[in-house]
Structures are given as C-alpha cells and as structure tokens.
From TrEMBL:
Residues 1-25 form the signal peptide. It comes from Triplophysa tibetana. This is NLR family CARD domain-containing protein 3 CARD15-like protein. Its main location: cytoplasm. One of its GO terms (molecular function) is ATP binding. It is found in: Cytoplasm. Keywords: ATP-binding, Cytoplasm, Leucine-rich repeat, Nucleotide-binding, Repeat, Signal. Residues 135-256 form the NACHT LRR and PYD domain. One of its GO terms (cellular component) is cytoplasm.
Length: 322
C-alpha cells in the first residue's frame, strides 16, 4: 500500500482498510498471484466490486459461477439508487426509494449484499426500515459506474440520436463537480474518470455489456482538467482535480513542481513566482508527502497573503506551523 501514496493516506478510514484488505487478500492468493496490485482508488474499488459479486453468487445463490445477467441487473439497480440519492445529497433512503429503482424490498437483505457489506438496512425511529450503503465512498463508486454504463448504453445503439463522446461526458461532469459548493461530487468524479480507462473496464469486462474507447478521450480530458487547475480555483477544488489526474495516471504537473521541492534548499521556494497550477501542484505534493506534517516551516515560502491562502490546506493538516 505504501507504494501508492494516494491509497496509503486513506488507510485511516476503517471501511477503506476493510476494502483494501479484502482486495489484497484475494489478489495475493495463489489463484490471483499474477494480478497487478491496484495503484488508484478506482482500481481498488473495481476489484472489490468484482470480488463481492463472486461472493454473492456463492453465499446467497449457492452457485460457483456468477449469473452475469442477474449480477448486471443488481448492479444497475443499486447504481441507479446510488446515483439518484447522491444527486439529492441523501445518504439514507427508504422503501419507496428502493421501489423506484426496481429493488424488491423483500430481497433487500440479499442486496445487502452485493455481497457482504455494501448495502445495509436498519430500523429508524418511527420510520420503519431505512437503508444506506456501508460507506459514502461505496455509494459514490456505484453512482459513477451507473453513470458511465448508462452513457455507454445510450450511445451504443445503431440508430441512437446521441453523438456525445466520452470526453464530452467527462468534461460535463468535471464542470458539475466544480460547481458543487460542498464538494459532494468530488469522489464520484474521481471514480468516473478512473472508470473511463480501459484498464478499469477490463477488470469489469464480464459485468459490462459495452466498453468505451479511452485512448483519445483520456488525453483530451487530462488537458481539460489542467486548464481548470490554471483557472485559479480554491485550494480544495484544485487538490481534488489533482486526485482526478492521478486516477487518469497523469502526473506531469506534479513532477513539474517536485523539481522545486527536491532541491534540498530550505529557502528554494522563497521568492519563486509560481502559477496557480504550480501552487496547486505544490500543495498536492506536500499533502501527499511521505514525511509527516508534524511541523510545517513557513519560512521556506514567501510571507504574503497569497502564499498563506494557497498553503492553508497544508497548514490545517500540520500539527504545528511556524
């Protein structure tokens, strides 16, 4: 896990530890020994979904082989629920919400279930049964998968009137996430971008009826995200866009700024004029550094209001700043 800093720093979240342990245990077993260890958040959750789908067939259906048609139907229903409720900002939903997504309430315990702990039901005070995903990140992943698969279905028909490309979809979702005031679509966007890659679609090839070509769209969306970073966004939004680039396996802006950080001269960045994109990259590098941010030395940087504002996320993450 330490080989991927973006994954390692999430290990303080108990659910992510459980998901990672589930995936790595299966992948490091003899049968999966040749598989490549996940490097991004999307890869980790994609493997997790595939393993849980297999487990559902064995545990609830008593079958060794996955019923692909049933699995696709279940994922579509859960994904639809996840997407609709995420757009509304809901983490908890009710029986009528399940019915709207063609989920049989009587079989909710089985869905609880794609396959072990993805979905759960509880009894709310005077509200009957209430439902939720085991963690918001699981809901966001399923919502992103539903959005991407729905788009592929709409554009794959021979007589389809849709002519939107994958890159157009991704650009639209980038804009939508940036317009969100509370950032509730940030992780959803990272998953959606990661799912657009052929490597992610290969992992889920049995559960997908169509796949999208990503060779051209990847570079186009990478350049679009870089353009957005240069627009002088808030530090939080810029940092999430760097996480998005990481899901797309693009590290060019980060590598550009690392040349400053690795000089070793404590005052190397004092007086250096950085562009908004470089500032964002610097903050991303510092937050993802292997060194603990116990004490952050502001003397290495310009003593200006702009500098303090840019470095605010790093200062907040540090125990002490001077």
């Amino acid at each position: 896990m330490k080989s991927s800093r973006s994954l390692y720093i999430m290990c303080h979240i108990p659910v992510f530890c459980w998901i990672s342990a589930t995936v790595l245990q299966r992948m490091l077993s003899e049968a999966e020994s040749q598989a490549q260890i996940p490097k991004t958040l999307t890869q980790m959750f994609t493997h997790f979904l595939r393993f849980q789908t297999k487990l559902k067939s064995q545990k609830y259906d008593g079958k060794c082989e996955v019923d692909l048609q049933q699995a696709r139907k279940s994922l579509e229903s859960l994904g639809k629920l996840a997407f609709q409720q995420l757009e509304k900002g809901n983490l908890i939903f009710y029986e009528e919400d399940l019915r709207e997504c063609d989920i049989d309430v009587r079989e909710a315990s089985v869905y609880s279930g794609v396959c072990t702990q993805i979905f759960r039901e509880e009894f709310g005070l005077n509200l009957g049964k209430v439902f939720s995903f085991v963690h918001l990140s699981v809901q966001e992943f399923l919502a992103a998968l539903f959005k991407f698969l729905s788009f592929l279905q709409q554009t794959s028909g021979r007589f389809s009137s849709f002519r939107t490309s994958v890159s157009d979809l991704l650009k639209s979702e980038v804009d939508k996430a940036l317009q969100s005031e509370n950032g509730h679509l940030d992780l959803y966007l990272r998953f959606l971008l990661g799912l657009s890659l052929e490597s992610s679609q290969t992992i889920l090839r049995d559960l997908m009826t169509q796949t999208g070509r990503s060779s051209d769209s990847k570079q186009e969306i990478v350049e679009y995200i870089k353009m957005k970073i240069r627009e002088n966004l808030s530090p939080e939004k810029s940092i999430n866009l760097f996480h998005c680039l990481n899901e797309l396996n693009d590290h060019s802006l980060v590598q550009e700024v690392q040349s400053y950080v690795k000089r070793g001269d404590e005052s190397s960045l004092s007086g250096v004029s950085l562009s908004p994109a470089q500032w964002s990259a610097l903050v991303f590098v510092l937050l993802n550094s292997e060194e603990k941010l116990d004490e952050f030395n502001l003397r290495s940087y310009d003593r200006s209001d702009e500098c303090l504002l840019r470095l605010l996320p790093v200062i907040k993450a540090s125990r002490k700043a001077e």
